[in-house]
Automatic annotation (TrEMBL):
PROSITE patterns: TPP_ENZYMES (PS00187)
Entry annotated with the keyword Hydrolase: yes
Positions of the Thiamine pyrophosphate enzyme central domain: 221-353
Family statement: Belongs to the TPP enzyme family.
Lineage start: Bacteria, Pseudomonadati, Pseudomonadota, Alphaproteobacteria, Rhodospirillales
Name of the protein in its database record: 3D-(3,5/4)-trihydroxycyclohexane-1,2-dione acylhydrolase (Decyclizing)
Organism expressing this protein natively: Lacibacterium aquatile
Length: 614
């Protein structure tokens, strides 16, 4: 057996370079790059190994470990999980800064390879700088935090362990069902140790997407349920995109006359003006989708984990006779909500369903009702997004301005707070990749870092990031990274002076405004952040504007810039789109001195009676 002597760090890097994948029939690197912030836990080992191969595996420098890991996750999402980025940090805070990003990737079923440095496997210098010492377990390090939020976790204690760990890691990252974050904790002394690795270990390997077909019995049950349906509805989730099933679903829905509602991750599966496009579903749903969901007798959920925002906390599918078919690549999700499981790849299984259904179509009166409701909803969207002369416009009006500034093939990026709800309702997708929201983990701070990942994945698109002032203050450092890497973003900061979304939720559950809006803190003492000035200090073009007309003009100037631009606008912290929506289960205190809370609790108890628990 022919061998080559390498350090463990060199071996890991060489293995990553050897992994290949296919995107639209073209062979490309599975790992097109690695994000790195170096410290004493990785600079000597991995740092030296990466420097040697920077022409084959580009190393990207960031300013915050969580930010770079979020960028890596958003890159994978934008590439439909076909390509994956890695991230390496030092031990201690550098490593634990990535835990939030790992959790986000886990929730959203998105692949990312995390390689945090670790304490010395040999323990000779213990305790080292930044080492967490567990008084009862000497094997514990800070990296054990990743165990709960990783689909696969390993600690490389000897160089030869890579021979087993790396194939397993890549298997998880590329498997449609197992897909999620992988953490390989890498002790700093092991990184520098050498081993005689088999040359064959570094042979090129091509990874293709696995397309599992449906079980014949499950397929038969699903076909029978659909053929008996009088009011069928499709709920499209992120799996539609990841499977590459967008065109298949569009043709299937159009041919069968079945209306399609979209989750946050599924949005863009249909263009907004297609006949069967009902818009968003659930708590942040369109009235068209939610009305149909309440009446549907068969719901075909495709590639969605049906979290509470989608199901309105299990109240949305109100027809007592409704049957739920869960078409999903994972058994874990396919079995949820007492569903009829239909385990399989979305694209392949939709094709199998289509073939088995023959000439069946949904009843014409149901399809016509769907078209009518969709037309009404589109009118509501148009009204909500209309330009306004208000001194502090609504989020909806700002969304309208950004939508008009964006081309059909541009992408809007957002994450937590009130904006995702408004965008889910109001953004009119004109392309399958025009909408990129992170709402599985609802992670404040994803927006700008996520926008950077999307831009790296889709360099030919303009990326419009929408972010509230609260999220901007949590994580803005990747503005500087976007300048450093020459990746232009167009960022709109909506300054409503606080956490407006949670303030509205606080009020809706009977609570008084407390600790959310800046003007209610410190006796209302005026405090103003110069967001435009701050963005300029990071190297961006930036300006503060007044009103929607000012925003429209500024967005055009931003388009003409050759670098990241930030446009700041003050917005209304209270107003939100009232049309559409559904109930959300947020527990209200049983005991309170506030009459408003007691009244909210009574409403809450009444709403619980509408939940379907099986």
């Amino acid at each position: 057996m022919k061998t080559i002597r390498l350090t463990a760090a060199q071996a890991l890097v060489r293995y990553l370079i050897a992994q290949r994948t296919e995107v639209d029939g073209v062979e490309v690197p599975l790992f097109p790059g690695i994000w790195a912030i170096f410290g004493h836990g990785n600079v000597a080992g991995l740092g030296e190994a990466l420097q040697e191969v920077q022409d084959q595996l580009p190393t990207l420098r960031a300013h915050n470990e969580q930010g770079m890991a979020l960028a890596a996750v958003s890159y994978a999402k934008a590439r439909n999980r076909r390509q994956i980025m890695a991230c390496t940090t030092s031990i201690g805070p550098g490593a634990t800064n990535m835990v939030t990003a790992a959790a986000l990737a886990h929730v959203n079923r998105l692949p990312v390879l995390l390689i945090p440095g670790d304490i010395f496997a040999g323990r000779r210098p213990d305790p080292v700088l930044q080492q967490i010492e567990d008084f009862g377990d000497a094997t514990v390090s800070a990296n054990d935090c990743f165990r709960a939020v990783s689909r696969y976790f390993d600690r490389i204690m000897r160089p030869e362990q890579l021979l087993a760990a790396l194939p397993r890691a890549v298997s998880v990252l590329t498997d449609p069902a197992e897909c999620g974050p992988v953490t390989l904790a890498f002790p700093q002394d092991v990184q520098a140790e050498a081993f005689d690795y088999p040359e064959a270990f570094f042979a090129k390997k091509l990874h293709r997407i696995r397309r599992q077909g449906a079980d014949a019995l499950e397929l038969g049950d699903a076909v029978a349920a659909l053929k008996a349906a009088k009011k069928p509805l499709i709920v499209a989730g992120g799996g539609v995109h990841y499977s590459g099933a967008v065109d298949r679903l569009r043709k299937f829905a159009a041919a069968r006359g079945i209306p399609v509602a979209e989750t946050q991750a599924g949005k863009g599966a249909l263009n907004w003006d297609e006949d069967m496009a009902m818009g968003s579903v659930g708590v942040t749903g369109a009235s068209s989708s939610n009305i149909l969901a309440g009446e549907a007798d068969v719901v075909l959920a495709v590639g969605t984990r049906l979290q509470d925002f989608t199901t309105a906390s299990r109240t949305l599918f109100a027809n007592p006779a409704a049957k739920l078919i869960q078409l999903n690549i994972t058994q874990f999700d396919a079995a949820k909500h007492a569903a009829m499981p239909l385990l399989g790849d979305a694209d392949r299984t939709l094709a199998e369903l289509d073939a088995a259904l023959g000439s069946w179509k949904a009843p014409a009166d149901w399809s016509d009702k769907a078209k009518s409701l969709a037309k009404e909803w589109r009118g509501a969207v148009e009204r909500a997004q209309a330009p306004s002369n208000a001194e502090r416009p609504t989020d909806a009006a700002v969304i309208g301005a950004v939508w008009r500034a964006a081309k059909p093939t541009d992408t809007v990026v957002c994450a937590a707070g009130g904006l995702p709800g408004e965008l889910h309702k109001l953004w009119r997708s004109r392309d399958a990749k025009s909408y990129h929201l992170e709402y599985g983990y609802s992670c404040m701070g994803y927006e700008i870092a996520g926008g950077l990942g999307v831009k790296l994945a889709q360099p030919d698109r303009d990326v419009f990031v929408m972010v509230g002032d609260g999220s901007y203050l949590m994580m803005n450092s990747e503005i500087a990274t976007s300048i450093l890497l020459g990746q232009k973003l167009i960022i709109t900061v909506l300054d409503n002076r606080g956490y407006g979304c949670i303030n509205r939720l606080q009020n809706a559950t009977g609570g008084a405004s407390f600790n959310n809006l800046i003007d209610t803190i410190n006796n209302g003492e005026v405090h103003q952040v110069d967001f435009a000035g701050h963005a300029k200090s990071l190297g961006a073009h930036a300006e503060m504007v007044d009103g929607i007309s000012g925003l429209e003009e500024a967005l055009q100037r931003a388009r003409a810039q050759d670098r990241t631009s930030v446009v700041v606008i003050k917005t209304d912290a209270v107003a939100t789109t009232q049309e559409g929506g559904a109930w959300w289960d947020v527990a209200v205190p049983e005991v309170s001195t506030r009459a408003e809370v007691r009244a909210a609790h009574a409403r809450y108890v009444g709403a619980l009676n509408n939940q379907r628990l099986a």
